[in-house]
Amino acid sequence: MHPANKNSCTSILIGRQATIDGSIIIGRNEDGGASLPKHFMVYPHQEGQQEPIFKSKVNKFQLTLPRVQYKYTATPEWTDQSGVFAEAGFNEYGVAMSATESIYTNNLALGADPLVVDGIGEEAMVTCILPYIKTAREGIERLGSLVEKFGTCESNGVLFADQKEAWYMEIVCGHQWLAQRIPDDCYALVANQVAIQEVDFEDNYNFMFKDDLKEFVLEYHLNPEPDHFNFRLIFGTKSEADEHYNTPRVWWGQQQFSGPNEQLPTSEDLAFVKKPQHLLSIDDAKMYLSSHYQKTPYDPLSKTPQAHIYRPISLAKTQESHLLQIRPEGPRDAACIHWLAMGVPAQSVYVPFYLGINQTPKFYQEGGLPYDNQSAYWLYKLAGILVDGHYSEFGQLLSDTQKKVNIYLAHQVQQIDRQAQEYSTAQKLEAFLTKSSCQNAEYAAQEYRKLIARLITASTDFSLLNFQTDLNL
Questions:
Q1: Percent of the chain, pLDDT > 90?
Q2: Catalytic residue among 9, 128, 153, 438
Q3: Active-site residue, 128 included
């Protein structure tokens, strides 16, 4: 739950047999506020003499951390005055984590196990989990144990992945949690609702959970259909807000990936995991997180009466969007890519940063409030702001720039893959991947600077002070 806007985020998870190249992909839009700058950082491997203590600035939660911290990437807030909110990244073992997808628990369940004011929350999760795990399952175990010990101050969904599998974890009450493995041939979309459905407590390969979760539900009479265990039905909500704010985002993605069907955007029965009708690529994942109901009456950019009845996926309040791709071939440092779109993904581009980098570009480490003309965050936000008022005039120009940059970056990934195999030492590979990632970021930024120059120049003729002069005068 981000402090600026608790109604946040849209997530996607894709299993390795559901992708065109065998990748595992997890990702999320971080929706917090229209002007909340983000940075992108690499935190190095550290082995201190003492165990550090994490102290939350959101509440009084604090935790003694392990002495050894693995290297990891993250996208923290521009200032930690209101908390870190590291949000997403990879660690040196190739484990990916994204936290969190805000979800909402019903009153009956919260009455049985209320949220804990000083429990662990979104602000602390990546910082306290990602640098200390070697697999996705370890991440779930570590976070689950902290929720059980300290409680949580929010209901949240958390994404994990490694070279073998992708997982979605839901923390629904003060101390209750469950996680489901995404089937290899499936994908899952989540939009601010409790999403996991049928649970098999005998299947430890596909489910992880608090040891006494089933007993808790029985003790407090929370299950309206006792002949089976539907996690969403037991802990979730079914409100009018859900049907206009949440379910349409899942519906639209399932229509794209699994084909049209008769389900409505407001359906409360959309499946958690689905098989795609064709293998999905990283571009399909980018498309989903950048989408706003294109080619439907619900597109906010259209002029139909239904244009604003459903909350879009790519939102003006998106701070950054990320896709964490784990590819099946090549050295780990080159196989794992953190695709990062600063600002609104519908108006930005996803830049590939490799796990093996030892630093990020300087302009990704800058930016705050108010606006500046240097940072990556404000560069991409400015382009979107300039397009916003004149989509009919500038939409195609933006689209052309995005297409050009995306093609270039896709080609660079292919080139880098081939060249990465030539480096004989980890140090040389690290230097190459860092240089290549920074060059890709600079190319995308330069193309957006050109776009902004054209937008500003063309916008000078849209003033309300214009007047059509009679040619005879």
A1: 92
A2: 9
A3: no
